[in-house]
Inverse folding.
């Protein structure tokens, strides 16, 4: 698998992502500076978390116009696989590679804690490490993770099986109007979505931070194992 | 600005009449406004340590593993594998009261710069926060802003905030304490220092542009607060964590080359103190051309540029043949890069602006003749030991009250706003263990880190306050299985011009020194914050509680050996250490009886070391599954905290006959640890052999704390009480 991790000024979880990919595949990904103009030859582009350009205008808004995003868009048009986590998810929505937007958390505070996700998305390399309905634990760390989209779009995402993950209780119970379960107030408790062709995935929490048995557990590892399996080591 | 420089202006800049006379003698003429500004900030308490230096010198600072002690931007210790831990703690108390968000944020930014200036990548942030009374209307504003500010800066930087402590007390009304600590990791043979070298070498400015923010911040933090403090808001700097993130990456990229001769961040007193320090330490002169300084505002005066405390700036001396290579790195990171001067052989700092010489000061006298005061210090008689009061409420009610009180309530509301997992190396997150643990990337080693202080002990007896902060930090590192290696300190006190406050300071340092020497636990960096006082409308001043905060770092050879405090599913609970039932200055006495009285608990350094060494050894042998030091609130609170961390309860044995029930459960005797084990019998034998006092506390299991006489407290009930305070206090619940 040839993976690349995009680094914008202000990206700060690129090392975490590289560590998780290395653990899953045995090889380190290529780091891609935001001014690069090509991502050709890669199997997978990952946009990791952080505060690209300080998130000063709006989370992900400026990064979405970086030179590399032109290349990433071309890559997407050709059917390339892209994973955006946290700020990466925000950038993918700002770049309109994924529908919806991420608003300020409903409680208006940064949220850094473990949450539980229910796996829903069908037929994607990002979810097939689990069975539909499985629940896994993962850390979250964001201020703007409150997913929103038009009711029509939300219906469509659900109808097409494009909701990849939802926030849930440890036992799998989903309740969008319970702030103790749906911590950031996301519409329909959506934590991650897929593109129409299911090759682009965006999610807010950080499965890459639970991939090492020495660092709290491997609950997030199935995501990376499944990706590696899809492309071969 | 057409100000006349005279004694009156000097006084308004914070210089005394004697100090101004000294300035006149050094200069041999009336100084220019810029020169007066330079003297006033360099001789401020904040930069010169003029009241504290004499006493700081008595602290233990050396050990075979210490690479750089106090005097550099941060302390440096050897952690094995060719690596070094670089760390320091620093206060941003005054700005955090005036503007809590920016005050706290720039405090975090400043301490991170101190660490990466030395070539280390910051890997962990901690903080020690002290707020006013939870009933005070203003406290909520300060808590909200400080917590948001710490999170806002640290989260954006991508440095995990992994630990800290928080207290509430009315003595901090109007004068909160925000002490921020950063720990970084560097190659031990690639540490960068500030001493400039090489006559003619370029002096390079990098980072943000200079504005008018923060002018005279260093003198502000050397004065007490009054009603006009809020009008000082413009002197609080504004932080830009995004720029600092670029700055850390650019600096570390540059430091991987051989371009950097010396480097110094621009912190308090900005360009003045960084230029003066680099040149003085290198015993060279420095010529600055202020026209070259990147400026954010128009028509800035030399005086303003020299005193600006704009954030996210660095000063470096580079090898001339590497300057272009360096420029390219900073251009890549879209940061300003400007050659603003050169080193000279004059031994003077010379500042030119628009063709005029705005300052020309001999560096020797500026540094060497900085005032040092041996201020009079008086000690109050420490209070007598408390005659044990009767228990007015019963054990169960007291526990419920204590764990719900502001000082013992769960801090998850705070730490859930700090990214604690970024970098992917956090082994023990906030609340999981007595010290936070992060793995040293690429190794199996871990750093254990904590911050500690018990100001109410120091208020009663400052010597014990200093000593206890040291031993508690040492215990907290020990309780994870790590070997405590070194400390940084943050000494927060009132006005040193008050002999009783000065006495507190001197006694606290004595206590810290004694603890450090007995435990082979040197202090390698630190910060002093004086004048933490507020003046009320009636003209009365009130000082904070003496708060000598300790930040400690220890090392674990193998993170797999680390233990947390959560009660395991099964086994037995044991108490290591002796219990006399010390209720003087205890939280029980304060929260249940409404009294802040008596002598603080006695400290026996021999017992501390013996008990701690035993516990650490047994953790490393795998004989201990969980460990928690006994501190605030005493034994029953420690047990409850272990239970709340996992939801598992304990069937407690009865108390020793010779102690009253409440003295046993809530006394704050030192040198104690609660440990969970499956090998109680063997552990007890080994403890006895080692001369370590040990006793059985009870059998682990169930979902409640069950007392020998039959009553039960459900752990989930305790947890609900423990979690209630912050959301109620912040009006979010």
């Amino acid at each position: 698998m040839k993976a690349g991790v995009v680094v914008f000024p202000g990206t700060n979880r690129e090392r975490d992502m590289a560590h998780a990919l290395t653990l899953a595949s045995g090889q380190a990904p290529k780091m891609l500076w935001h001014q690069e103009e090509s991502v050709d030859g890669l199997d997978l582009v990952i946009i990791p978390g952080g505060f690209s350009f300080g998130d000063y205008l709006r989370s992900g808004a400026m990064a979405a116009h970086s030179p590399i995003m032109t290349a990433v868009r071309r890559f997407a048009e050709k059917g390339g696989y892209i994973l955006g986590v946290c700020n990466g998810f925000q950038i993918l929505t700002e770049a309109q590679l994924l529908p919806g937007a991420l608003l300020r958390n409903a409680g208006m505070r940064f949220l850094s804690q473990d949450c539980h996700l229910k796996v829903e998305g069908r037929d994607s390399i990002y979810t097939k490490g689990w069975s539909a309905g499985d629940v896994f634990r993962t850390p979250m760390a964001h201020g703007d993770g409150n997913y929103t989209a038009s009711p029509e779009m939300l219906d469509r995402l659900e109808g097409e099986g494009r909701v990849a993950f939802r926030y849930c209780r440890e036992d799998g119970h989903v309740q969008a109007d319970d702030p103790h379960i749906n911590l950031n107030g996301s519409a329909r408790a959506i934590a991650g979505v897929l593109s129409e062709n299911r090759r682009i995935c965006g999610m807010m929490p950080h499965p890459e931070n639970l991939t090492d048995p020495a660092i709290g557990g491997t609950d997030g590892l199935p995501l990376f194992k499944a990706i590696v399996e899809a492309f071969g080591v | 600005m057409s100000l006349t420089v005279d004694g009156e202006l000097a006084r308004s800049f914070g210089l005394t009449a004697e100090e101004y006379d000294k300035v006149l003698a050094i200069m041999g003429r009336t100084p220019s406004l810029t020169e007066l500004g330079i003297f006033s900030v360099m001789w401020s308490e904040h930069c010169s340590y003029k009241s504290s230096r004499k006493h700081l010198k008595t602290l233990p600072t050396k050990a075979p593993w210490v690479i750089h002690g106090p005097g550099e931007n941060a302390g440096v210790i050897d952690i094995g594998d060719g690596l070094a831990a670089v760390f320091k703690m620093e206060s941003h108390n005054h700005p955090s009261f005036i503007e809590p968000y920016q005050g706290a944020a720039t405090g975090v930014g400043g301490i991170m710069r101190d660490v990466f200036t030395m070539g280390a990548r910051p890997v962990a942030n901690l903080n020690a926060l002290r707020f006013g009374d939870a009933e005070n209307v203003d406290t909520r504003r300060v808590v909200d802003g400080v917590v948001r500010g710490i999170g806002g800066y640290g989260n954006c930087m991508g440095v995990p905030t992994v630990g800290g402590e928080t207290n509430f007390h009315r003595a901090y009304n109007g004068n909160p304490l925000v002490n921020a600590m950063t720990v970084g990791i560097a190659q031990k043979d690639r540490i960068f220092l500030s001493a400039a070298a090489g006559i003619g070498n370029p002096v390079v400015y990098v980072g943000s542009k200079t504005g008018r923010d923060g002018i005279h911040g260093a003198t502000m933090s050397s004065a007490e607060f009054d009603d006009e403090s809020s009008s000082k808001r413009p002197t609080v700097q504004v932080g830009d964590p995004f720029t600092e993130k670029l700055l850390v990456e650019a600096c570390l990229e540059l430091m991987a080359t051989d371009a950097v001769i010396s480097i110094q961040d621009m912190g308090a007193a900005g360009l003045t103190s960084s230029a003066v320090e680099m040149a003085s330490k290198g015993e060279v002169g420095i010529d600055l051309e202020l026209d070259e300084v990147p400026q954010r505002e128009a028509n800035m005066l030399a005086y303003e540029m020299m005193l600006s405390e704009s954030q996210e700036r660095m000063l470096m001396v580079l090898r001339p043949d590497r300057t272009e290579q360096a420029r390219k790195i900073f251009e890549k990171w879209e940061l300003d890069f400007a050659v603003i001067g050169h080193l000279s052989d004059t031994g003077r700092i010379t500042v030119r602006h628009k063709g005029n010489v705005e300052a020309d000061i001999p560096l020797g006298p500026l540094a060497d003749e900085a005032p040092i005061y041996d201020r009079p210090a008086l000690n109050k008689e420490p209070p007598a030991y408390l005659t044990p009061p009767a228990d007015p409420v019963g054990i169960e009610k007291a526990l419920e009250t204590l764990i719900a009180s502001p000082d013992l309530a769960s801090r998850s509301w705070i730490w859930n706003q700090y990214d604690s997992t970024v970098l992917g190396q956090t082994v023990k997150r906030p609340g999981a263990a007595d010290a936070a643990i992060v793995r040293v990337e690429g190794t199996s080693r871990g750093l254990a880190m904590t911050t500690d202080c018990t100001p109410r002990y120091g208020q009663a007896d400052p010597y014990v306050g200093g000593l206890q902060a040291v031993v508690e930090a040492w215990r907290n590192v020990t309780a994870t299985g790590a070997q405590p290696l070194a400390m940084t300190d943050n000494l927060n006190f009132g006005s040193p011009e008050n002999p009783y406050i000065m006495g507190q300071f001197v006694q606290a340092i004595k206590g810290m020194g004694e603890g450090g020497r007995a435990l082979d636990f040197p202090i390698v960096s630190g910060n002093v914050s004086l004048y933490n006082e507020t003046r009320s409308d009636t003209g009365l001043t009130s000082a904070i509680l003496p708060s000598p905060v300790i930040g400690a770092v220890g090392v674990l050879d193998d993170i797999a050996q680390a233990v947390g405090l959560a009660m395991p599913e099964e086994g037995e609970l044991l108490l290591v250490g002796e219990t006399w039932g010390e209720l003087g200055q205890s939280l029980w006495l304060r929260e249940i009886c409404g009294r802040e009285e008596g002598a603080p608990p006695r400290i026996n350094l021999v017992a501390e070391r013996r008990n701690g060494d035993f516990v650490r050894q047994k953790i490393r042998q795998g004989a201990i599954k969980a460990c928690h030091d006994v501190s605030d609130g005493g034994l029953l609170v420690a047990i409850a905290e272990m239970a709340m961390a996992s939801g598992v309860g304990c069937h407690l044995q009865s108390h020793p006959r010779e102690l009253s029930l409440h003295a046993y459960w809530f006394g704050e005797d030192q040198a104690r640890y609660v440990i969970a084990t499956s090998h109680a019998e063997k552990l007890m034998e080994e403890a006895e052999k080692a001369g370590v006092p040990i006793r059985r506390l009870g059998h682990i299991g169930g979902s409640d704390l069950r007392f020998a006489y039959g009553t039960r407290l459900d752990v989930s009930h305790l947890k609900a009480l423990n979690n209630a305070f912050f959301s109620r206090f912040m009006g979010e619940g």
